[in-house]
Automatic annotation (TrEMBL):
This is 4-hydroxythreonine-4-phosphate dehydrogenase PdxA. Signal peptide: none annotated. The keyword Oxidoreductase applies. One of its GO terms (molecular function) is NAD binding. Keywords: Metal-binding, NAD, Oxidoreductase. It comes from Caldimicrobium thiodismutans. Its EC number is 1.1.1.262. The gene is pdxA.
């Protein structure tokens, strides 16, 4: 039977605490979990919170660290890559039906000399996905990004009609999986400029890039509409006017999403050969080891992974 894989993430972050707080939930699930991480670290954390390791969780032990919460070291950061590498090996061999990743410090890729900006880009490369997309799922908002981890000054040069159409297709496929019985779906494309460019007065990207992309997408059967001014779009999306929003850059989409779903939102990578989800927060070194971390986002990520991998 295929398992749900879980990577421990940064051992110095909140990942171990969140995982242990989620063990009672994992124990209730009718599936097996493979944890790629540090067995002794997890057992110490479980003992601290007086939680038992469930019988449906198997640990693939890949490190033996003595790490202080909130204080990452090169050794602890590089261990996160070993967890990922082994999980990917299992995924490629067909032993996993989904992968849930706990937070890492993106600096680990620079430390290891790898040219990636985060989990999404690394997983896409190693799993052979040519055009992945970073998506976010919550009860009130579903958002997919056209560009991901880029400096804002670089966003404009990365916006292409073909890329928008490709990601619109991924978002549409994802939305259909979430709403298999809903006949009429609506996906909204956010504008880039204030007031959607005001007919070219405040920028020409809407006329030059976004509207042509919408036309091509609609011709391909994708229910994409817009472009809508970002300052009002997310209000209407949160009220159910749209099933999904395509946002052009990271903070444009993530600020409104996290206003609604900071505690329970899920990051989903679209376009991979395997389901991959994760919490929407980071390593949170500032609260690691203090008992303050909430497991809600991780639990939501596991729930969505189970739902999508059926």
């Amino acid at each position: 039977m295929k398992s749900i894989g879980i990577t421990l993430g940064d051992p110095a972050g909140v990942g171990p605490e969140i995982l242990v707080k989620s063990l009672p939930f994992l124990a209730e699930q009718k599936c097996f979990f493979l944890l790629f991480g540090d067995e002794n670290l997890l057992k110490r954390e479980a003992k601290h919170y007086n939680v038992f390791l469930p019988s449906n969780l198997k640990i693939i032990n890949l490190s033996e660290l003595k790490v202080q919460p909130g204080k990452p070291t090169p050794e602890s950061q590089l261990a996160t890559l070993r967890y990922l590498e082994e999980a990917i090996r299992y995924a490629l061999s067909g032993e996993l039906k989904a992968l849930v990743t706990l937070p890492i410090n993106k600096e680990v890729f620079k430390l290891a000399g790898l040219p990636f900006r985060g989990h999404t880009e690394y997983l896409a490369h190693t799993l052979g996905a040519k055009a992945p997309a970073m998506s976010f799922y919550g009860r009130r908002l579903r958002v997919t990004l056209i560009t991901t981890h880029l400096p804002l000054r670089d966003v404009f040069s990365k916006l292409e009609v073909s890329k928008i159409v490709e990601i619109a297709q991924l978002a549409y496929d994802f939305t259909k999986r979430l709403n298999p019985r809903k006949r009429e779906l609506k996906i909204a494309l956010s504008a880039l400029n204030p007031h959607a460019g005001e007919g070219g007065l405040l920028g020409d990207e809407e006329e030059r890039l976004l509207k042509p992309a919408i036309k091509i997408a609609q011709d391909q059967g994708i229910p994409l509409y817009g472009p809508y001014p970002a300052d009002s779009l997310f209000f209407f999306a949160s009220r159910g006017y749209f099933d999904h929003v395509l946002s052009l850059y990271h903070d444009q989409g993530l600020i409104p999403f996290k206003l609604f779903h900071f505690r329970d939102g899920v990051n989903v990578t679209l376009g991979l050969p395997i389901v991959r989800t994760s919490p929407v927060h980071g390593t949170a070194y500032d609260i690691a080891g203090q008992g303050k971390a909430f497991p809600d986002s991780f639990i939501s990520a596991v729930k969505l992974a189970l739902r999508l991998s059926k």
